[in-house]
TrEMBL record, chain A:
<dbReference type="GO" id="GO:0000103">
    <property type="term" value="P:sulfate assimilation"/>
</dbReference>
<dbReference type="InterPro" id="IPR045854">
    <property type="entry name" value="NO2/SO3_Rdtase_4Fe4S_sf"/>
</dbReference>
<keyword id="KW-0004">4Fe-4S</keyword>
<keyword id="KW-0479">Metal-binding</keyword>
<dbReference type="Pfam" id="PF03460">
    <property type="entry name" value="NIR_SIR_ferr"/>
</dbReference>
<feature type="domain" description="Nitrite/Sulfite reductase ferredoxin-like">
    <location>
        <begin position="52"/>
        <end position="110"/>
    </location>
</feature>
<keyword id="KW-0411">Iron-sulfur</keyword>
<dbReference type="GO" id="GO:0020037">
    <property type="term" value="F:heme binding"/>
</dbReference>
<feature type="domain" description="Nitrite/Sulfite reductase ferredoxin-like">
    <location>
        <begin position="342"/>
        <end position="392"/>
    </location>
</feature>
UniProtKB/TrEMBL annotation, chain B:
<dbReference type="InterPro" id="IPR021270">
    <property type="entry name" value="DUF2849"/>
</dbReference>
<dbReference type="Pfam" id="PF11011">
    <property type="entry name" value="DUF2849"/>
</dbReference>
<protein>
    <recommendedName>
        <fullName>DUF2849 domain-containing protein</fullName>
    </recommendedName>
</protein>
Length: 544, 98
C-alpha cells in the first residue's frame, strides 16, 4: 500500500490549515456562502438534505487497519456512529458539523487520508479492481499505475477546472470488476502480441442522464507513456468540452458529438505534441512506487484445502471468496448487505471489527468495493473458518455476493438533496422479500442496482435488473430496467415500461425473476436469459 | 401556508423559521406569507442559516406538513433510520412522510 512521503504529508497538512482558516472566516462572516461553497467543496464537504456531508477519498479503495480504525473513530467523534461506503470506493459521512470539519480533516491527515478532489470539476479519486494485487486472473497489479495517475492528477493546475467531474478506473484483468467502460477514462493493462505490457484506453463512458459505454480509442499505449496519453485525453476534453450546459459537459458527450474517430485523432495529435514535453513522470518515480504494492509475506506452506463440513460456512465460501494468485489463499468479501440492511452502511463498531480482521487475517489490508462491500484481499484458506465465525457474530457474514440481495443503492431521497425518490427502502424490501422466500441462491448471479435519481449513483443503468426512482407529480415512482452490466460484457439496461409505486416495484422485480426462472436454460444467468429471450416476455408478464 | 427552512450554518442541522428564530421542529414553523425572501436574506447575511428556501405546507391538528415528500424527509430525518429521526420512538412517524 502506498505510504505518504514528506511532500504528500506536507501538502495534506497545509490544506487542512488552509481550510481551517477558510472555515473560521466563513463562521465569522468575513466571506459569504457564495465565496465559501467552492472552497468547502474542494475539501469534499457538501450541504445535503439533512446536514453537511463529507466524502473522504480512498485511493483505489485500499485501506490499512489504522485507516479503517480512524474512519470508525471519525464516525463516532464527528458523526452519528456510522459511515456509508460508496460506489466510488470512498466513504461518506452524513451528519458533519461545519465547525468540526477542520478537526476532522486533521484527524484524517494523521492516517494519510483526505477529502481533496472528492467534489468539483476535477479528476476524482482513481478507482481500480478491488481484487488488484490478489486476483488469480490478473496480468499485473494495476495499483502502482493508479497511484501514478493519482499523483499526477492531485492538484493538477490544468485540470482543476474541467468542464465537469472526471473519473478514471484502472484494471489489469480481462474480467472487469471496476465498471471500467462506464468511466470517463477506463484503462485496462494488457499484453500485446509481442508480449509487452501496455494500456488500452477506453474514453467517454459514464452513466447519469446520458449513459454511454466508452469506446476503445487505443488498444496499446506503452506503460512509460501512460500519463502522457491520459494527459492528451484530458487536454482535448478541457479544450472542447462544453461549459455552457452542465448536462452536456461530460467527456462522453464530446466523444459522442465529435465521434470516437475524430476525438482519437485529436488525442493522438496532442499525444505526439506532448511526447517531448516531459509530461511523463521519470521511471524512477514508478520504481519508487511499485515496492509499496509488493506482495506481503505469503506463507508458501499454507494449505489449499478448506473444510466445508459446515454447510453455512460452505455457502459463504462459495459466494463470498474469490480465487487468489497464490495457492493457499483467497480474497474474502465482507458483505455490507445484511437482509433488510442499508447497502454500504457500516457502524463504527463494524469498522473497528473489519480493521481488526484486516490486521489479523489479511496482512493489515482491506479494500472498499464499488459494490459497497469490503474485501480482505489475502486470507489463508486455513483461517477462513475462524474469519467467517467472527464475521457471523458481528452481522457481517451474509453469503450474498453478486446475488439479488447484494444490492447497490445510492443514498436516495433519505439523504441526498438531488434525489427524487428513496432508494434504500426499496433495497431493503427486495432483500427481505427474496431472503424470506429462500430464492436468492436459486437465482444465482443477479446484480440489482437502484438509483434515486437520473444521476445514477446507484448504477441502475448497469444492473441486470436496474431501478430508477423518479418524481411523478410529487410522489415516488420507480422505473424497472433490464439487461445492464458493468462487467466485461458491459451493457446498458433498457426500461421495461411504465413505473411502479414502492410496493409495486418489489412485486415487479419478483415477476421478472419468475420470467427468468421459467425460461432459464442450462443454468444460465438472469442476464444471459434476458439476452436470449429479449424484453418481450418480461413486458408481457409485467404489464398484461 | 408558506414556511421557511434552511440549514444551521455551524452544525448543518435542518431548521425552520418560527417567527423569531430557528427551530429544529417543523411544527414550530410559522406562515411567513410574502416575507419569506426578506427573512431568508436577513438571516443568511446574519450567518445564522445556510441555503434557506421557502416551501408550501399545511397545518392541521397533527402539526405542520410540508407539501413535498423531500421536505417531509428533511423535517423528520431519514426514513430508513428511525433512531436518527426527530421521532425515534414513534412507529407511525414514517407514515407521516409518505
Amino acid at each position: 500500500m502506498y505510504q505518504y512521503d514528506h511532500y504528500d504529508q506536507a501538502m495534506v497538512d497545509a490544506r487542512v490549515e488552509e481550510f481551517r482558516d477558510q472555515t473560521r472566516r466563513r463562521l465569522e462572516g468575513k466571506i459569504t456562502e457564495d465565496q465559501f461553497k467552492p472552497l468547502r467543496l474542494m475539501n469534499g464537504l457538501y450541504l445535503q438534505l439533512h446536514a453537511y456531508m463529507l466524502r473522504v477519498a480512498i485511493p483505489y479503495g485500499t485501506l490499512n487497519s489504522a485507516q479503517m480504525h480512524a474512519l470508525a473513530d471519525i464516525a463516532d467523534k464527528y458523526d452519528r456512529g456510522y459511515g456509508h461506503f460508496t460506489t466510488r470506493q470512498n466513504i461518506q459521512y452524513n451528519w458533519i458539523k461545519l465547525e468540526d470539519a477542520p478537526d476532522l480533516l486533521a484527524d484524517l491527515a494523521k492516517v494519510e487520508m483526505h477529502a481533496i478532489q472528492t467534489s468539483g470539476n476535477c479528476i476524482r479519486n482513481i478507482s481500480s479492481d478491488h481484487f488488484a494485487g490478489a486476483a488469480a486472473d490478473e496480468l499485473i497489479d494495476p495499483r502502482p499505475y493508479a497511484e501514478l495517475l493519482r499523483q499526477w492528477s492531485s492538484f493538477h493546475p490544468e485540470f482543476s477546472y474541467l468542464p465537469r467531474k472526471f473519473k478514471i478506473a484502472v484494471i489489469a484483468s480481462e474480467t472487469d470488476r471496476a465498471a471500467m467502460k462506464l468511466h470517463d477514462i477506463g484503462i485496462q493493462i494488457v499484453k500485446n502480441d509481442a508480449g509487452e505490457i501496455g494500456a488500452a484506453f477506453y474514453v467517454g463512458g459514464g452513466m447519469g442522464r446520458t449513459p454511454m459505454i466508452a469506446p476503445l480509442i487505443r488498444d496499446f499505449v506503452p506503460l512509460d507513456h501512460l500519463v502522457t496519453y491520459a494527459e492528451a485525453c484530458l487536454r482535448v476534453y478541457n479544450r472542447y468540452g462544453r461549459r455552457d450546459n452542465k448536462y452536456k459537459a461530460r467527456i462522453k458527450i464530446l466523444v459522442h458529438e465529435l465521434g470516437a474517430e475524430e476525438y482519437t485523432r485529436q488525442v493522438e495529435e496532442e499525444f505526439q505534441h506532448l511526447l517531448d514535453q516531459g509530461v511523463e513522470p521519470p521511471r524512477a518515480e514508478l520504481e519508487r512506487i511499485i515496492p509499496y504494492f509488493a506482495d506481503p509475506a505469503f506463507d508458501d506452506a499454507s494449505k489449499d484445502a478448506i473444510d466445508r463440513s459446515n454447510p453455512d460456512f460452505a455457502d459463504w465460501v462459495d459466494a463470498n471468496t474469490h480465487p487468489h494468485k497464490r495457492d493457499g489463499y483467497v480474497s474474502a468479501v465482507i458483505s455490507l448487505k445484511p437482509v433488510g440492511g442499508i447497502p454500504g452502511d457500516a457502524s463504527a463498531h463494524q469498522m473497528h471489527v473489519m480493521a481488526d480482521l484486516a490486521r489479523e487475517y489479511s496482512f493489515d489490508e482491506c479494500r472498499v468495493m464499488h459494490t459497497q462491500n469490503i474485501v480482505l484481499p489475502h486470507v489463508r484458506k486455513s483461517e477462513l473458518y475462524a474469519l467467517w465465525q467472527k464475521l457471523e457474530s458481528e452481522g457481517l457474514g451474509a453469503p450474498n455476493l453478486d446475488t439479488i440481495e447484494d444490492i447497490i443503492a445510492c443514498p436516495g431521497l433519505d439523504y441526498c438533496s438531488l434525489a427524487n425518490a428513496r432508494s434504500i427502502p426499496v433495497a431493503q424490501k427486495i432483500s427481505e422479500r427474496f431472503a424470506a422466500k429462500g430464492r436468492t441462491k436459486e437465482l444465482g448471479e443477479l446484480k440489482l442496482k437502484i438509483s434515486g435519481c437520473i444521476n445514477a449513483c446507484g448504477h441502475h443503468h448497469a444492473g441486470h435488473i436496474g431501478i430508477l426512482g423518479v418524481d411523478k407529480k410529487g410522489t415516488e415512482n420507480y422505473q424497472l430496467l433490464l439487461g445492464g452490466s458493468e462487467a466485461q460484457d458491459t451493457a446498458l439496461a433498457k426500461i421495461t415500461g411504465p413505473g411502479f409505486d414502492e410496493e409495486g416495484i418489489v412485486d415487479a422485480v419478483e415477476t421478472a425473476t419468475d420470467v427468468y426462472l421459467s425460461n432459464r436454460e442450462n443454468g444460465e444467468r438472469f442476464l444471459d436469459t434476458y439476452r436470449r429471450i429479449g424484453m418481450a416476455p418480461f413486458k408481457e408478464a409485467l404489464y398484461d | 401556508m408558506k414556511i421557511l427552512t434552511g440549514n444551521d450554518l455551524k452544525t448543518g442541522a435542518v431548521v425552520w423559521w418560527d417567527g423569531t428564530g430557528w427551530s429544529l421542529h417543523v411544527n414550530d414553523a410559522v406562515d411567513t406569507g410574502e416575507r419569506a425572501d426578506e427573512i431568508a436574506a436577513s438571516e443568511e447575511s446574519a450567518r445564522r442559516v445556510n441555503a434557506p428556501y421557502a416551501l408550501e405546507a399545511t397545518r392541521d391538528e397533527n402539526g405542520v406538513r410540508p407539501a413535498h415528500i423531500k421536505d417531509r424527509v428533511r423535517a423528520l430525518g431519514p426514513t430508513v433510520r428511525p433512531d436518527l429521526t426527530l421521532k425515534p420512538k414513534d412507529p407511525e412517524a414514517m407514515d407521516w412522510v409518505i
